[in-house]
Structure formats: C-alpha cells, structure tokens
Specification:
Layout (H helix, E strand, L loop, with lengths): L12 E6 L13 H19 L3 H5 L2 E12 L8 E11 L3 E10 L5 E13 L4 E2 L8 H4 L8
Antiparallel strand pairs: 1-3, 2-5, 3-4, 4-5, 5-6
C-alpha cells in the first residue's frame, strides 16, 4: 500500500476524531481493533456526505464489506486527535475500493493506512447490484504515482 506524507489535498474527505480513554488498551495505546472502527466511521461519514444513497438505503441496499487490509505504522495514544483521510481507488460495476490513512493531527505523522472493498448489495434479494451514479467521482479518486 502507498504511504503518503500528509497533504490536505491528497484525500477528498477528511474526518477528525479525538481519542477516547475507552479506546486505549492495557498497553496504553489504541487497540488495533479500534483502528477498524475509526476507519469505518470515517468511511460512513464520507459515503453519507458525498453519495446520494439515502433513498437506496431505505429501499434495502447497502455496502457490504468483502475485503479489508490495514497496516499499523505508529501508535495512537489518549488523548490524541487524529485526522482520517478517505478517497476512492477504484469503482467497479457493484464494488468500490476505498483507501484511507490516519495521521496525528498535531505532528501530521502517518500512523496507519487501509484499503477496503465494499459491494453494493440488495439486502432483500441477497445479491450484489449496480452502484448508484457517483457525482464528482473524478475528484474523489486517489492519484498514485502509477497514475501519472
């Protein structure tokens, strides 16, 4: 996975969180499972703010995660504030690959990166369905060195 230095323009969506004491484990840092929760919350905010899918949610369609990969690059401690960037790597017929990173808000140190694949799923029919149209998709796409 790419490991970008902090750049406010790299990700389309940013979400700020303050670490809660309950996020810290007996080793006095944020537990690895909590990283998944941070990423999930940021993805949901990204989808809720920029995708007009609320009607589809009410009709029984939602994203189902089919793949998740996280790299842990540094510790997060209480009461740090963190910045979570979210963007899109790839769009398929029914799938969406997202890329995310967590940075310490103060130092801008990269603490973790994650890549997930979600499938747009009809909960009633129990099968994948075509993604709704994504407005402003080009701006949401992550630009990597391979993109030129």
């Amino acid at each position: 996975m790419i490991k970008p230095d902090y750049d406010s323009d790299f990700f389309y969506h940013w979400h700020e969180l303050t670490v809660r004491f309950s996020d810290v484990d007996s080793l006095q840092h944020v537990n690895n499972a909590t990283f998944s929760t941070y990423y999930e919350e940021s993805r949901l905010r990204f989808l809720g703010e920029y995708f007009e899918m609320s009607k589809e949610y009410y009709e029984g369609r939602s994203f189902v995660m089919v793949r998740s990969e996280i790299e842990y690059l540094g510790q997060i401690k209480f009461p740090d504030s963190i910045l979570i960037g979210t963007g899109i790597l790839k769009v398929g017929n029914s799938s969406l690959d997202t890329y995310q990173a967590i940075y310490n808000k103060e130092s801008k140190k990269l603490l973790s990166v994650a890549q997930t694949t979600g499938v747009w799923f009809d909960l009633n029919k129990q099968r994948p369905v075509k993604l709704p149209e994504i407005q402003n998709l080009e701006a949401m796409l992550i630009k990597t060195d391979q993109d030129g």
